[in-house]
From TrEMBL:
Residue ranges annotated for the HTH lysR-type domain, each copy included: 1-59
Keyword Transcription: yes
Organism of derivation: Pseudomonas fildesensis
Family: Belongs to the LysR transcriptional regulatory family.
Coiled coil: none
Protein known as: Transcriptional regulator
Transmembrane segments: none
């Protein structure tokens, strides 16, 4: 039995919650995964996993063993990186997740330079606006906008994104163009809500150190960034969005910026990854590359 391979299989089962998911993730036959775990449990003389018809979860011994495995596997990867060519040319699969807009407009257009520099890294990119459980879903790194960060994860700041307040031309013809904060009375807003937390977002403006929230009536609420802008273009109200996400619509005239003289709070963009991935060469070179991409002028993160 290859004990390190068995550890790798075991940790992935714990993270993904099932034998089949772990096998698919590792591109191994499902029967091989089952055999490896049976051999590992027999070798250790303890039951590591509690199996039910619906899920697989670690026993108390399994939880303790999982924590040691994560540490050992991270140390092994770092050691191999130091004493082999992978330090200069990391290889393997890197699973990342990011908002669809960040992926479409910032990361993927710049990605050919990264894959040319690191041809042995295979990327699996998830594009969505929902929170991701990095451990359970086997994700190495996520990009997230906003302040709601998980303290259990390592955070690497990437940029502060400018935001704009905008509306469609048709909406402004019906409701008028607001020229001051007081003019917002009588306007409507497209509301954004989080499908996971239920938190709802309207408009907010910054006056010095003070943030003022605006409570406006709404007819439409959405839980995706693309849907948020689509509802705005359809004339349902005002929105606030990172500039990069609305830049094309603003240039095309399907959206119009309003209240440009009133500051909107900037939105932080952060890369997050589990502590046991901190030493991963794949994660390290990718996040370093992201820092460089976010610092380039003209990327739309700053105006």
């Amino acid at each position: 039995m290859d004990r390190f391979n068995a550890m790798r299989v075991f940790t992935r089962i714990v993270e993904l919650g099932g034998f089949a998911k772990a096998a698919d993730s590792l591109q191994m036959p499902r029967a091989s995964v089952t055999i490896l775990i049976k051999q590992l449990e027999a070798h250790l003389g303890v039951q590591l996993l509690q199996r039910t018809t619906r899920q697989v979860s670690p026993t108390l011994d399994g939880t303790a063993y999982y924590q040691r495995c994560v540490s050992l596997l991270a140390d092994l990867e770092e050691t191999e990186a130091v004493f082999s060519t992978t330090r200069r040319s990391p290889r393997g699969t890197l699973r990342i997740d990011m908002p669809s807009g960040i992926g479409r407009f910032l990361v993927i257009p710049a990605l050919p330079a990264f894959t040319a520099q690191y041809p042995d890294i295979n990327l699996e990119i998830g594009l969505n606006d929902r929170p991701v459980d990095l451990i359970r879903e086997g994700v190495d790194c996520v990009l997230r906008g906003g302040l709601a960060l998980d303290d259990s994860l390592v955070a690497r700041p990437l940029a502060m994104m400018d935001q704009v307040t905008c509306a469609s031309p048709g909406y402004l013809q019906r409701f008028g163009v607001p020229s001051s904060f007081e003019d917002l009375s009588g306007h409507h807003v497209v509301e954004y809500f989080s499908s996971s937390s239920g938190k709802r977002y309207g408009l907010e403006f910054q006056f010095g150190e003070q943030i003022r929230l605006v409570d406006l009536p709404k007819q439409v609420a959405v839980n995706s960034a693309d849907g948020y802008l689509a509802a705005c273009e359809a004339g349902y109200g005002l929105v606030q969005t990172p500039y990069y996400h609305a830049r094309r619509q603003l240039e095309a005239g399907t959206l119009v910026e309003v209240l440009s003289g009133i500051q909107v709070p900037r939105l932080p963009l952060t890369a997050l990854y589990p502590p046991h991935r901190q030493l991963s060469q794949r994660v390290r070179v990718f996040v370093d590359w992201l820092v460089d991409v976010c610092a380039r002028p003209g990327n739309g993160l700053q105006r």
